[in-house]
Amino acid sequence: MTKQIKQEILLETGTNEMEIIEFYLGTQSFGINVQKLKEIIPFEAGAVTSIPGSDPGMLGTLLIRGATIPLIDLKQHIAQKEKSPEGEVRRVVLVCEFNERVNGFKVDGVNQIHRVSWGDVHPMASFIDQYRPRFTGSINIEGREILIIDLEHIVSEFDPEAALDYEADLHSAEMQEKIPHTRQEMRLMLAEDSALIRDGIEKVLRLSSYSNLKMFINGADCYQGILKIKAQAEAEKRPISDFLNLLITDIEMPKMDGLTLCKRLKEDPVLKDVPVVLFSSLINDQMAHKCDSVGADGYATKPQIPRLVQMLDRLLKIDGAEAA
If 198 and its partner were Cys, which of 69, 80, 87, 192 is the partner (CB 3.0–4.6 Å)? Predict the structure, then answer.
């Protein structure tokens, strides 16, 4: 029987909590953010259409209610050495949606959904991050170390077109418009835990002359950086806009998520007027509601690189900016 994931706002927004679903590949526990999960269905080999010559981890395509989606065998792709769990194994497919795409992931079974704090998620070591890891962090629950899988990266390994093509965006028509000189004067901050995505966003912004950019690897470090410039602004009796004009933040990050970071700024009488843009693979109608509830000034999904620049222009009142 198909298990449909309720599209409800289960958590109070901005509390630095998330829900992860724990699943197994062999005997190892893994997890993903429930926000990416549409439904769980039984795995039926007869429903899969194989693709000749494809990577062993790409099982083929799966037909679900008239729609065909790619089906990836996560165990084959990232945990080949894991032994199968003892007893009967009821393999299932996690049907996930992110970055405006739907994909299926075959796993050995699911355990349960856990409500956890982003503060308890341990980031991957920075020296591992540069080698494009398949995991974004880990968390210990009831003595089990659960690795959080970077599904966006997994998909990009099979489908290069699904990766964020920053180089193509750099040369798109929107990016080739006359660059307003005032962009160079804007002081921006970026909170993003993925080194690859940080580098890509930095390329786009700097080519657009948004060159005054300070970057952080998670929301907690970014918040501390903002508090420091707030203290400096108050000590010098200067407006915060002399130090910070706009914040761009991911939503999923260890230590502090982007929704919580945005909420803290908007509840601060000194920082509340700093525009905040949430830039995430999770943006959909439900997440847009959450972004609005914490006072975000804008939000965009990660494939929308040109739109991000247009949004910054509008929020920063750059000459010639159009509504995004």
Answer: 192
